[in-house]
Amino acid sequence: MYTIFVEYRILPEKREAYFNYMSTIPAQISERGGVGYRHLEGVEQSNTFVEAFEVEQLETYQAIRSWRLSDTELPTFISGGAAKLHMWAFAPKE
User: Fold this and answer.
1) Fewer Cβ atoms within 10 A, N terminus or C terminus of the chain?
2) With contact defined as beta carbons under 8 Å apart, do 12 and 77 qualify?
């Protein structure tokens, strides 16, 4: 199982539109094989968000990553645009 993190900071003036956009993301992640989706906001850094979920296969992560990074709407909410959208996969270590 891989844990996936998506991190970015949104523009404060786009906050409401961002939340409207994000309302569909959990279902879309699930449809693509992601489980346990969480949407978190930084306590000490308002407007900084992390999305977290898990996938069983690295290929599933790569497909979701490709989909998210090719999205043209999400970067319109991000401070710095698409260049500031970060996405990583982590594998458990014993």
Assistant:
1) C
2) no
79 SS3 class: coil
Q: Residue 26 pLDDT > 90, yes or no?
A: yes
Residue 27: both structure tokens together = 């279902």
- The three-point CA angle 88-53-84 to 5° equals 40
| Residue 55 belongs to domain spanning | 2-90
- Number of domains making up the chain: 1
**CATH code (residue 75):** 3.30.70.100
Strand 48-55 relative to strand 2-9: parallel, antiparallel, unpaired? antiparallel
Asked if 57 contacts 35 with a C-beta cutoff of 8 angstroms, the reply is: no
Rounded to the nearest angstrom, the gap between the alpha carbon of residue 10 and the centroid of all alpha carbons in its chain is 12
- For residue range 31-67, what is the model confidence (pLDDT) as tens digits? 999 999 999 999 999 999 999 999 999 999 999 999 9
Identity at 54, one-letter amino acid code: E
